[in-house]
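[Discussion] Sanity-checking designs against the backbone

I'm trying to build intuition for which residues belong where. Below is a structure token string of 424 positions. I'd appreciate it if someone posts a full sequence so I can compare it with mine line by line.
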């Protein structure tokens, strides 16, 4: 199969598991594509979506998601809620929490309010598609007034599935897990595509499986693999040389351009489908924390953070980033190099010193190299900071890119922004 057929494989798998998913105007899209109005995979199916294409191409990410949310709210009979990234779905639902009275008013009047990041000519174009719907506005007010647990299914009672295109990795699935527990209770999440180095490489044919697995399609790119852990004199392996249960670093030669590169991705072979490997993304080698050469991958750090959070009664992790103290300069203090971790929590307003230390303790338990450096004093104690609600939504807006936000921050302007949001 060639990459354009990836869309057809996805739609076929979706329809097989959720028969009403391809209903006309039955899918709402939440995805920011600045300057390029299209769906995440680029398939030309205008009758599938109830979301106007220009709404996603607005210059402001926050405004684009809010306008798309408004058009989604108009359509009570949705069957599919689709987002390019889980973070986009999370931020759109955060806008619902914050702005539902105003959204209800716009629904009732059929009028799109002027707002920053919404050019007047585009507003007029979108305004022509709106009509007053006071009944739907009243329903929105009633459901939001009841609270937001399970709000997605209450607003769209015919919804069958949430499709999130870019959530293959565990750190991105953090948002999916949080949404499953709160706003999207009772709904399955489906991640249809595996993409790396700008190329579509695989498709998920099993929408109802909780952990995404992707069939690598050999005609979409030329795949090579390096065994993990690395050998002294490694040689690349081909698709037919892989072993189930083993991990491999991915090397890709993708079209167009025929460039060959290490993708920085580690995959685990979960099985085979018609002799082609079915893989699970394990980690990104490019995203690691390392102040003394200990190299903790972001995925494993995320697992440790979530384990520590389970020891904080009532806390729900909304988002986080990590920073190596050397990047903070004098503001990190005079102690040994260490990790600075910024978290947004729900359900807790503060953490005791004992609770904060739990994360450092869990890191020592999970990573013996880290424990050794901590014992010697060559790595200082981890510092944990709480940030204001909505800080990461603003950070993603400042990032100005539709790709996933890095968990290990290395840009000074983003560090300054998150530092300015610290509450304790």
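Best answer:
Here's mine. Compare freely.
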């Amino acid at each position: 199969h060639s990459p354009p057929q990836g869309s057809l494989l996805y739609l076929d798998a979706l329809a097989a598991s959720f028969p009403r998913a391809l209903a006309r105007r039955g899918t709402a899209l939440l995805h920011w594509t600045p300057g390029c109005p299209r769906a995440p995979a680029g398939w030309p199916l205008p009758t599938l979506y109830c979301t106007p294409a220009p709404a996603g191409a607005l210059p402001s990410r926050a405004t684009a998601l809010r306008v798309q949310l408004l058009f989604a709210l108009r359509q009570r009979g949705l069957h599919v809620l689709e987002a390019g990234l889980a973070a986009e779905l999370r931020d759109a639902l955060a806008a619902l929490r914050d702005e539902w009275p105003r959204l209800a008013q716009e629904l009732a009047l059929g009028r799109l309010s002027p707002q920053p990041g919404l050019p007047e000519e585009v507003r007029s174009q979108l305004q022509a598609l709106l009509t007053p719907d006071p009944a739907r506005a009243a329903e929105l007010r009633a459901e939001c007034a009841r609270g937001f647990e399970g709000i997605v299914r209450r607003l769209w009672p015919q919804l069958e599935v949430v499709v999130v295109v870019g959530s293959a990795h565990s750190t991105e699935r953090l948002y999916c897990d949080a949404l499953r527990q709160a706003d999207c209770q009772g709904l399955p999440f489906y991640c249809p595509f595996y993409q790396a180095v700008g190329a579509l490489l695989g498709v998920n044919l099993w929408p109802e499986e909780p952990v995404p697995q992707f069939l690598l399609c050999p005609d979409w790119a030329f795949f090579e693999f390096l065994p993990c852990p690395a050998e002294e004199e490694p040689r690349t392996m081909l698709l037919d040389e892989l072993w189930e249960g083993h991990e491999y670093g991915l090397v890709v030669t993708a079209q167009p351009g025929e460039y060959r590169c290490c993708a920085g991705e580690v995959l685990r072979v979960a099985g085979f489908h018609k002799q082609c490997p079915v893989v699970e993304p394990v980690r990104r080698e490019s995203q690691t924390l390392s102040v003394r050469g200990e190299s903790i991958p972001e995925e494993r750090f995320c697992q440790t953070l979530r384990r520590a959070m389970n020891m904080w009664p009532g806390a729900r992790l909304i988002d986080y980033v990590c920073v190596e103290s050397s990047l903070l300069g004098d503001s990190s203090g005079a102690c040994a190099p260490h990790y600075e971790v910024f978290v947004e929590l729900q359900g807790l307003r503060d953490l005791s010193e004992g609770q904060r230390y739990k994360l450092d303790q869990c890191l020592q338990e999970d990573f013996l190299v880290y424990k050794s450096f901590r014992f010697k004093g060559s790595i200082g104690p981890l510092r944990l900071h709480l940030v204001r609600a909505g800080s990461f939504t603003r950070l993603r807006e400042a990032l100005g890119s539709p790709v996933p936000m890095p968990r290990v921050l290395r840009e000074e302007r983003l560090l300054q922004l998150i530092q300015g949001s610290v509450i304790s």
